[in-house]
Design brief:
The protein is mostly helical. It has 2 helices and no strands. Helix 1 packs antiparallel against helix 2. The longest helix has 27 residues, at 4-30.
Length: 74
C-alpha cells in the first residue's frame, strides 16, 4: 500500500515538470512573462490538489489489483 506522503511527493515531482511546460507554452503564446507565471501558479495549485485527491481515491479502488497469498509454509 502506498503511503500518503509518497503519493504527495509523486504529485509534486510531476507537477513541477508539467507546470514548467505550461509556463513555457503560456510564454510562447502570450509573449508575456508575467502572464505565463500567473498561469503557471494557478495551474500548479489547482492540479496538485486535484491529482492528490485522484491518487487517494484510486488507493481505495480494488479494480485491477491482485492479491498476494500471505500463507507461508516451512
Amino acid at each position: 500500500m502506498e503511503s500518503k506522503r509518497r503519493s504527495f511527493l509523486k504529485v509534486i515531482s510531476w507537477r513541477t515538470t508539467a507546470t514548467l511546460t505550461t509556463m513555457l507554452i503560456s510564454f510562447f503564446i502570450t509573449g508575456n512573462v508575467d502572464m505565463a507565471l500567473k498561469i503557471g501558479v494557478f495551474e500548479v495549485v489547482a492540479k496538485i490538489a486535484l491529482q492528490y485527491l485522484h491518487e487517494r481515491v484510486w488507493t481505495n479502488i480494488k479494480f485491477g489489483l491482485r492479491t498476494v497469498s500471505k500463507d507461508y509454509q516451512i
